[in-house]
Amino acid sequence: MPRTIPLERVRNIGIMAHIDAGKTTCSERILFYSGKNYKIGEVHEGAATMDYMVQEQERGITITSAATAVSWRDHQISLIDTPGHVDFTAEVERSLRVLDGAVALFCAVGGVQPQTEQVWRQSEKYEVPKLCMVNKMDRIGANFFTVIDEIKETLGGNPVMMVYPMGAAETFCGVIDLLTMKALTFDEESRGVKVIESEIPEEYREECERLHIEMMEKAAEQDEALMNKYFETGSLTNEEIMQGIRKGTIDRTLVPAYCGTAFKNKGVQPLLDGVINYLPSPLDVGSVHAADNPGLIRRPDDKEPFAGLAFKILSDKHMGKITFVRIYSGTLKVGDPIYNSTMDAEARIGRLFRMHANRQEALEEAYAGDIIAVVGLSKTRTGDTICDPKKPIVLESIEFPAPVISISIRPSSRGDNEKLGSALHSLAQEDPTFIVKFDPETSETIISGMGELHLEIIVDRLRREHNVECEVGKPEVAYRETIRHMVDGEYKHVKQSGGRGQYAHVCLRLEPQEPGHGFSFVNEVKGGVIPNEYIPAVEKGVIKAMESGPCGGFPVVDVKVVVHYGSYHEVDSNEFAFVECARQCFKNLFLKGNPLLLEPIMSVEVAVPEEYMGTATGSICSRRGRVEGMDDKAGTKLVRGFVPLGEMFGYSSAIRTVTQGRATFTMSFERYEGVPFELSETIIEKRKKEGKVR
Ligand code: GDP
Asked: Is the full-model pTM beyond 0.85?
């Protein structure tokens, strides 16, 4: 069956916003106006379709959330879910990887908020073209123009006003389309479905004409031919303006800006028109290339070999494991054999779906540019490439930061042990930043994630979705260990106890690496003094030692380990002896290498009314933090700084108490830094007492 929607009419987009800006409401309206959703669910009624954590669960739909297909003016739009909380930046990165364009949503009162800034930066990193939508124009204090200025000043964007607001707050009644120069109002009875076009009211005419010319000039600047035409004739047609704005949007030299109120059903359709008029199709985005070979490419074309990226995994009660895949090239049919090139595993496509707001559409075939759900890829993880088995390619994976916080967890009733194990396993499969470990020495299950809230949500999902009530321990910081000096030395593992003995001898060199460089293992053994067959055992021993570091039992990072000399015994040497020998050698050397404990440093932004500014800066400084800057935002002071995660536990209630509930804050992982000496002594002492240093 051939494709029904040509590739140039496909849009894969996400909505990025600060929490509470109205993303859920706006997504709902998009589903509603595009006609695929039977009823508008208000967020406060708990029925919003895209909000899957709780509401969808209760309605029995768990799987529409990752990507929902809608159609608008003969275009197919995939709305890819991006989460609202900073704890989930990894989730944002994941969605930015697979979408081609985004709508940055702002609150007309709050404007550019800390998290919008962060997500904006991330989207620039992935070179994602954007539109801006200033929502909540009906709120008291709403001001489209202030937000436009903030987009310029704070985000460094180049916004082009595509609409002009008629009124603000309680007088907001619609928008003027600055391209067609028509006033648009939205019929209240049909909840805004009916858009009424009329002449521009006299009071706005002059200003709108000025902005129309400004738009024309910005469009002309995007393209030489348009610029020449504009110089010669002094004007451009509406088609030419659209062409220029489209080019500028895709080149990311400008951002078309809209405004409205999703909640009051005004201004959403012009935004949808903007999505299809200005955001890129997969054709505009172009080819993808292999991670390890920029010359090996896949074009967005059905005739190319199949290649796609798994970007989200969900487990559903009825369907089992569902993998969301972005297809970059080729086609995919039910029953096709596919190759997971990241994992080196073969699989077969069980079932294919396109997810709509309130139904799943089973597909026989999917095409380049599509975002679809696949059932039957049991081994596939988030970030894996799946491709044509005969034409393998590994696309760049999605990078996820390692977790920074851990808690121990156990079921409230002993009988639920097994249930908890399988529930945790399935949650970990969905979320690459959530890790589960069982510590056999202390018989504890430890879960780790990106922040306190992240783990709280996991525990809540265990209760709601898996019916396991749990008790959790105190949150603990995920420290790391590393060394600061190079060390070289040897160790002999010799055991003579009756019969056959054990013998292994290795010389290792440990070299500190730049932060973030991870672990590497190099074999420089010459002349077979350690036979090749034992080298993997040496590496295994080193890795084993690194899992639970010699200082405080924390994972060791950023060390290069070189094995360069040693010896063996014809009879007594074996794999086990070399594993043990390397482990012990690493441990001894590590402690001589001026070891250092590392702790996660969080970037913290606290918003407070002016009178609490001193309190906010004090709250950062007293937590071993440093203040990096202060901003003034619409009467609110914004204090930014860096604080060690270990000092941030309980911050949320502490800052609320000292500011009479007036402060809000966001926090996200920034980097690892060394722990001050005295504190690290205390931490290590405590770990030793708990029996966690072996
Ligand atoms: P999200 O956190 O970004 O998904 O935001 P929601 O869509 O959940 O909206 C947060 C709150 O703002 C809800 O109470 C909405 O009803 C409300 N809201 C959303 N859009 C608007 C709007 O255009 N105007 C007003 N006044 N409130 C809105």
From this structure: no
Whose C-alpha lies nearest to ligand 1, atom 6? Answer: 22
What per-residue confidence (pLDDT) applies to 84? 55
Answer whether 263 contacts ligand 1 (Cβ < 6 A).
Answer: yes
Measuring from atom 18 of ligand 1, which residue has the nearest CA?
A: 22
Q: Is the pLDDT of residue 107 over 60?
A: yes
At 489-511, the pLDDT tens digits run 999 999 887 677 899 999 999 99
Token readout for 223 is 């393209």
The alpha carbon of 90 and the centre of ligand 1 are apart by a number of angstroms equal to 24
pLDDT (tens digit per residue) in 531-585: 999 999 999 999 999 999 999 999 999 999 999 999 999 989 999 999 999 999 9
**How close is the Cα of 8 to the center of ligand 1, in Å?**
32
Residue 42 CA: which ligand 1 atom is closest?
Answer: 16
What gap in Å lies between CA 345 and CA 341, rounded to an integer?
Answer: 7
Higher pLDDT, 28 or 523: 523
Give the CATH fold of the 406-478 domain.
Alpha-Beta Plaits (3.30.70)
Distance 35 CA to ligand 1 centre (A): 21
| Ligand 1 proximity of 494 Cβ (cutoff 6 Å) | no
Q: Give the CA distances from residue 545 to residues 537, 554, 648, 693, in Å, rounded to whole numbers and listed in that order.
A: 12, 10, 30, 11
Q: Domain-by-domain residue ranges, the chain?
A: 7-285, 288-387, 406-478, 481-593, 599-679
What is the residue with the minimal CA distance to atom 25 of ligand 1?
136
For residues 591 and 305, what is the distance between their CA atoms, to the nearest angstrom?
52
594 close to 677: Cβ distance less than 8 angstroms? no
Q: How close is the Cα of 10 to the center of ligand 1, in Å?
A: 28
Q: Which residues fall within 8 angstroms of residue 89, CB to CB, at 6 or more apart?
A: 118, 122, 401, 450, 668, 669
Domain 481-593 adopts which CATH fold?
Answer: Ribosomal Protein S5; domain 2 (3.30.230)
The pLDDT, as a whole number, for residue 113 is 81
> Atom 19, ligand 1: which residue's CA is nearest?
22
Nearest residue CA, atom 17 of ligand 1?
22
Identical topology for domains 406-478 and 481-593: no
Which residue's C-alpha comes closest to atom 9 of ligand 1? 22
CB count, 10 Å around CB of 652?
A: 15
Residue found by looking up tokens 């067959």 in the block? 533
User: Of the candidates 22, 17, 15, 16, which has an alpha carbon nearest to the alpha carbon of residue 265?
Assistant: 22
Fold classification of 7-285 (topology level): Rossmann fold (3.40.50)
Instruction: State if residue 45 touches ligand 1 by the CB under 6 angstroms criterion.
Output: no
The class level of CATH for 288-387 reads mainly beta
Orientation of helix 89-98 relative to helix 114-125, angle to 10°: 40
In words, the CATH class of domain 599-679 is: alpha beta
User: CA torsion, points 566, 570, 575, 581, in degrees to nearest 10?
Assistant: -40
388 within 8 A of 304, measured Cβ to Cβ = no
* Closest ligand 1 atom to Cα of 26: 7
